Amino acid sequence: TADVFIPRPETEILVETAIKIGYRLCVIGHRLKILDIGTGCGNIAISMARNLLYCEMDAIDISDNALEVALSNAKLNNAKVNFIQSDLFNTYNLQPSTYDLIVINPPYVPTREIAKLQPEIKYEPHMALDGGKDGLDFYRRIIDKTPCYLRKDGFLIMEMGFNQKDAIKSIFQNSGYFEIIELIKDYNNIDRVIIAKKRERGNG
Fold it and tell me: Is 10 a residue whose pLDDT tops 80?
């Protein structure tokens, strides 16, 4: 519906990457906990819940209308996802040091470039596109806040826009809490997904 951003093919790479890491993290006796931030229509959370059957999947979004769409999609796909209304981590429903894996496809279009996008995109929610002046507002907020919610050696996996790789790597490095593991390109050979692993600050 008009309440959610329409998933793009590039996000399939984010989902496939997260599922592969999820498989690697699965161990006997431990139920994997995953968080999808800014879930929108629920495509990421639902896909992961369907493929990682022994995970506990949480998904948050600031928009109640988006969460209604996501819940409907989860029911249609017989996926068990715990949907939570929240502006990032501003909720008591998310507990510190809980998640093995956090996944996000954040808004990353610089504000000034939104008016230049294809006409059909104007029908999609503005807040699902607008990444602030340089497109990196949400990366700064996420990279700053997620260490508290990840378990030791947990992973943060993020989609990124064209030509944002170096700036996002710098944000990660300045945080001191992450080691960048891998950059993955999309179908057009553009750096699209960044994988980072939590580490103890000051180590490595």
Answer: yes
| Cβ neighbour number for residue 155 with a 10 Å cutoff | 24
In degrees, rounded to 5, the angle at the alpha carbon of residue 93 between the alpha carbons of residues 89 and 99 is: 70
Q: What is the model's pLDDT at position 204? A: 47
One-letter amino acid of 200: E
Cβ atoms of residues 56 and 33 within 8 Å:
yes
pLDDT level of residue 142 (50, 70, 90 thresholds): very high
What is the helix (H) or strand (E) element at residue 179, kind and residue range? strand 178-185
Contact between residue 147 and residue 177 where contact means Cβ atoms under 8 Å apart: yes
Vertex 126 angle, CA 60 and 175, to 5°:
55
User: In the predicted model, what is the mean pLDDT of residues 118-147?
Assistant: 76
Residue 73 CA to chain centroid, in angstroms? Answer: 18
Helix and strand tally (H, E) in the chain?
A: 5, 7
Query: CB–CB of 159/173 below 8 Å?
Result: no
Residue 148: left if φ>0, alpha if ψ -120 to 50, beta else—which one?
alpha
- Residue 109 in this model has a pLDDT that exceeds 50: yes
What is d(CA 157, CA 194) in angstroms, rounded to the nearest whole number? 6
Q: 41 with 3: CB under 8 angstroms?
A: no
CA-to-CA distance for 161 and 148, rounded, in angstroms?
25
